[in-house]
Write a structure and sequence with these properties.
By secondary structure, the chain is α+β, with helices and mostly antiparallel strands. It is built from eight helices and 15 strands.
C-alpha cells in the first residue's frame, strides 16, 4: 500500500473516532446553518482538525483544501500535493442519527487525484484507491457492475439546496431517470454514493452543484473500479464544476444521453 494512502487511512480513522464519540450523544452537538439546509456542527470542525493534524504532521509541506476551514495558505503556491478533505459528508444525516455518512480524503498531485479514502464509521467500511492500482473495500478488490442497460439499474442521486430553478431541475431529472431505471435513491452522502458505485452497490450516480471535497475521493474509486466519471455533458472537468455522473461504462453513456440537457 502506498505510504500516502496509509497516512490518509490513519487520518480518516482519527476523524471517524471524533464522529463516533459524538454519535452517542447527539443532543450535545452544536449545529449551525451555513445556508438554507446546509449545516455544520462542532463535530465536523473537530473531525477536520483531527484529520489535518495527522496529515500535516506527516507532510507539513502539503497544501490542504477542506470543507470547513477552506484552503491553506500554500494552496496557490504551485504546491505539488493537495489534500482534499470532507470530514463529515452527510452532516444532515448525522445530526438526525440517520446512519449514512462518511469521512472523505483525497490527495491530488499536480491536479490529478492519486490517493483516495472514503470511510463509513457506522459500518466500518473502508474504501480505498490508488491511481493505477485499483479500488478496494476492506482490502478486497471492488469493481463496478457489468450492467449494460439503464432499465435494470439502481441509481443514486442527491440535491444541493439552492434556487427554485435548481430544485425544478432536480425534480425533472428525477422523473426522467426514475422512469427509465429500476429505482433512484437519495441517501444524502455523495462521497459514499460514489464509493457504492465503485463497489457495485449502485449502478450509477448523478448530482449537480457538488464541491471538490464531495467528489474527489469517490471519483477515483469509480475509475479505479472500472467505471467512468464525467460532467453531464460527458466531459471530464467535473471536479471543480461540480456536476457529476458516475457509472459502469455502458450505463454512463445512457445517463449522459438523458441528462445532457441539464448540463
Amino acid at each position: 500500500m502506498h505510504p500516502m494512502l496509509n497516512t490518509a487511512i490513519k487520518a480518516a480513522r482519527r476523524g471517524a473516532a471524533v464522529i463516533n464519540r459524538a454519535s452517542f450523544d447527539l443532543d450535545r452537538v452544536t449545529v449551525t446553518e451555513k445556508q438554507h439546509n446546509d449545516f455544520v456542527t462542532d463535530v465536523d470542525q473537530a473531525a477536520e482538525r483531527a484529520i489535518i493534524e495527522v496529515l500535516s504532521k506527516a507532510y507539513p509541506e502539503h497544501a490542504i483544501l477542506a470543507e470547513e476551514s477552506g484552503a491553506s495558505a500554500n494552496t496557490h503556491d504551485e504546491n505539488e500535493f493537495l489534500w482534499i478533505i470532507d470530514p463529515l459528508d452527510g452532516t444532515t444525516n448525522f445530526i438526525h442519527g440517520f446512519p449514512q455518512y462518511c469521512v472523505s480524503i483525497a490527495l491530488a498531485q499536480r491536479g490529478i487525484v492519486t490517493q483516495a479514502v472514503v470511510y463509513d464509521p457506522v459500518r466500518n467500511d473502508l474504501f480505498t484507491a490508488t491511481k493505477g492500482a485499483g479500488a478496494f473495500l476492506n482490502d478486497k478488490r471492488i469493481r463496478v457492475t457489468k450492467l449494460d442497460r439503464i432499465a435494470n439499474a439502481l441509481l443514486g442521486t442527491g440535491y444541493v439546496a439552492g434556487s427554485s430553478s435548481a430544485l425544478q431541475d432536480y425534480l425533472n431529472m428525477y422523473q426522467i431517470i426514475g422512469e427509465r431505471s429500476q429505482g433512484v435513491r437519495r441517501a444524502g452522502s455523495a462521497a459514499l454514493d460514489l464509493a457504492y458505485v465503485a463497489a457495485g452497490r449502485l449502478d450509477g450516480f448523478y448530482e449537480k452543484g457538488l464541491k471538490p471535497w464531495d467528489i474527489a475521493a469517490g471519483a477515483l474509486m469509480v475509475t479505479e473500479a472500472g467505471g467512468i466519471v464525467g460532467e453531464f455533458s460527458g466531459e471530464s472537468a467535473y471536479l471543480y464544476k461540480g456536476d457529476v455522473i458516475a457509472a459502469s461504462p455502458k450505463v454512463f453513456g445512457q445517463m449522459v444521453a438523458l441528462l445532457a440537457p441539464f448540463a
